[in-house]
Amino acid sequence: MKKLLLIAAVAVLGINASAQEFRFGPKAGFAMSTIKIDDKQDDLSARKMDPKYTFYIGGMAEYKFNDKFALQGEVLYSPLGGNENIEGVNAGGLFVGEKTKITFGTLLVPVSAKYFITEGFSVAAGLNVGIILTAKQKTVIGSDLLGVEIDAEDSDYKDGNIKSGIKTLNLAPFLGVEYALENGLFFDARYSLGISNLSNDNSGGSVKNSFAQIGVGFKFGGN
């Protein structure tokens, strides 16, 4: 009886081990980032900046427990942010406006749980932990023919550096999908909703950064 139980245990462990799979590889793609600002001053102060179209690049690792479930971790870099165009006025026959571009140089560490609907198609849910390494703002006032870049009067924000006014941690839960081919090539898409208030201003306002990603990568490893 003991021998039978031992044989059964070894068989179960063998099946479980064969189902486990570790894969890793590079990934890169396109990102669309937006910034939502709420100054808490009046009903019109909340606004969403125009999207910033950018990229991301990095690597991923996936541990598959069985045919249905897996955990995935990644390390990515992306210059996220947003743009804002303020309509100008006609000044002596010259249409003058203002354009502002904000860039958050962000190290992203997404961790997700994956469910495989089929062998190649999976859905995922997780948390994107963003570490903002740099924060820059560029504002240009002028026309399409002539523009003048302006700098902040505050000495802490000189040369477009606004890092002192922005918090470092950006938490963003996300949902995503992935389609993988048998040769290791995969395509994925996800949306991350920024829930962290990135503003260091004590006035009660908020700055939140959300972003969508579409990319491609390759997985090495496996059984």
UniProtKB/TrEMBL annotation:
Pfam families: OMP_b-brl_2. The keyword Signal applies. It comes from the Bacteria. Residues 19-199 form the Outer membrane protein beta-barrel domain. Gene3D superfamilies: 2.40.160.20. Residues 1-19 form the signal peptide. Keywords: Signal. InterPro entries: Beta-barrel_OMP_2, OMP/PagP_B-barrel. This is Outer membrane protein beta-barrel domain-containing protein. It comes from Chryseobacterium jejuense. The lineage of its organism: Bacteria, Pseudomonadati, Bacteroidota, Flavobacteriia, Flavobacteriales.
